[in-house]
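With this grant's support, we have settled on a layout for protein records. An illustrative entry appears below exactly as we store it:
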Amino acid sequence: MERMVDRTISAAAFTDSAHGPLPARARVVIVGGGVVGTSIAHHLAEAGEKDVLLLEANVLGSGTTWHAAGLVNGARASTTLTQLSKYSRDFYTRLGDLADVDLNWVECGSLSMARTDGRVDELHYQLNVAQQGGVEARFLDEKQLLEQWPLVNPAGVKAALLIPGDGTINPGYAAIAFGKLAHAAGVQIREGVRVESLIVKDGRAVGVRTSQGDVEADTVVLAAGLWTRDLARTADVSVPLYAAEHVHVRTNPVEGSVPTLPILRDLDASYYIRHEEGRFLVGAFEPDGKPVAVRDISSGGFAEFDADWEHFESVRVQAERTVPAVQRAGFERFLNAPESFTPDANFLLGETGEVEGLFVAAGMNSQGIIFAPGIGRELAAWILAGTPQFDASAVDARRFSRHQDNRRYLHDRTREGLGRLYAMHWPNLQMSTGRNVRRSPLHHRVAALGAVFGEINGGERANWYDPAQAPVEYSYRRASWFEHVAEEHRAARENVVLFDLSPFAKVFVEGPDALDVVQRTFTSDLDVPLNRAVYTLQLNEAGGIELDVTVTRLEESRFLVVAPSATRDKTLSILRRAAAGTSAAVFDATSAFATISVNGPNARRLLENASPEDWSDEAQPFLAGRWVEIADGYAYALRVSFTGELGYEIYVSSDLAENVYDALWDAGQELGVRPAGYFALDSLRSEKGFRHLGHDIGPVDDPKSAGLWFTVSLDKKADFIGRAAISGDLTRKHRVVYVGITDPEPLLLHDETIYRDGTAVGRVTSGNYGHSLGGAVGLAVVAPGTPLDGTWEVEVGPTRYSIEVSPKPFYDPTGSRMRG
């Protein structure tokens, strides 16, 4: 069964009932019978939920699965994704035996080559993450490289990383094996049933409408690959993914092509090579992808496009240069078929924000085979428990802005997205396509000051300032913006800066039941005096952190919720669900107001120059808000800061934003005010030890383990979400500590391994350079009882560096400059 692109697969391999009548209902309906959908069905049944119906429009595995290359990897770019991929790899080694299906699992290993210094750094980073996750990996010298791959021309190769336990499978038969196991456990599978729309009642998925009638359900899972977006739109749900042509070609027979050859990844040349039946299969992740509208793709299964040798030529030339045997053999097959991609090259998983009981597992970005078992296990657990059982932050289906579901935007972004899998994964990398779509009201003002823009959630924001607009050079070390950010950072610590924080999500909750809604949603007691701000959390039912926000009580029944930019739509969905059926309304005011942050020890002096108000501590203490006269209008001023310095956030209507910004800028000239961007904001918060949602805290981190117990009010009357899970004797999962590298050169990002007396005891969750401290700093997690004495080190690239470890942040200003 080594033969790939097998069109004979179907559920007929294990059952005669795949074309029987549809049941009237099932507790869980899964739409899509590829390797992901069948894995979810199997894992649901394995966990005890057997009232499951899997619907496939054609036959099992006939979507993306049939033409997948069957590559299986145990390590990915982060701790969380490595946990998923390692489980998947381990599961594939026994799936064939469990189902009695020959998957042709071959543990050949994988070998990634680096041709640039930056790629060498990336492979060292990957090695660290792999070893931290229990995945064997090691670097090879040139002699060892040739021992592993005798047919390689090593010219230009600077490093090679081997992961011995990786391998290959027949992907279509993996889907059949999962389907067979699920069927044997009681899952019903139907082929040739097309789901035409979703049935939603009172904001909840209650079934599907199919070509053979309606089926009721308590939960619906969309695992329909590139068809998922349009199907979700029938329920007004945004699932941003788009199809593209995806290519691999097969050579004629090659002497020396044997099953034990590791999967070869020539990352800097955008291709991989694997053995297949005495031949080579060469696949491309080219940087200039070819997006395809769904309407132009056959819906009959086993879809293909015409061969495009011209588009493939650059990859072919590189592959033939590195493995000359490829050129000598020539090619016998060109497979060009559709795959779906997301705006950030991570897949989509979890319950949708718009409709309860509707789950998504799609947009695999050519990694469906790699992740399918892990996705099946985790989504099954999520459905049954009601909350994610792993840190889903990076793949949460709610992480995108609604506009990112737009097909024109997706078409543009997908040209770049296809190649992102093999392109350099630089820290802070910014995509170049799909840009300048959403802009702050102050976009042109900060652009004139030299803003270098990045984007988050599809919105533009100033990452740093460089009036010369020098070319951006990324690095795992000191990138081209390092000194610009250092200057902005120091200005915030020593003088005063202006941040444009307009992309922050701003949501109003108002009406007679507004207090009840926010009390039931957030952990803190929000029955506070008017114009009082509270930093608080939103938990899931298991007590994990879904959001961290600031809530300000503007009036008795009116609250302003400010959340990170990346959680705008997630915040809205959570609050709208909480307000459903109440006398409270939820409004998205993000675009209606600009947010200008004035930060630094001279922030008060600047505001005194721009406004006739009294800006003393007595007039406006920490966490207090008020309406103020400023420039030629009025704005709401909130005394908070994410930097650890004296700070104010000025919320001004978008039509007045430029007027107020100009006045603040002019008022700061005598003080030497500087504009500052988000990269400086992150370095400042890292020094102060403020948490970053998605890195330091997430859906499996409870407030006590995260060191945020001060946000929890168990004695308030409202029974907030997650309260039961964190009440009583809550066991701390880990301890948060603060780490600083004593050597001034290296940087910290996240997921670096931490050692105490030579033993791995934890990892960095987020890090940056502490420009006020003269070295890299970060937050880290270790086991709760880990002593803080001893010799501590952190692994950055190939080197272990001495670090200081503290139970408190290294930077903590005193007096009125403290955030609290």
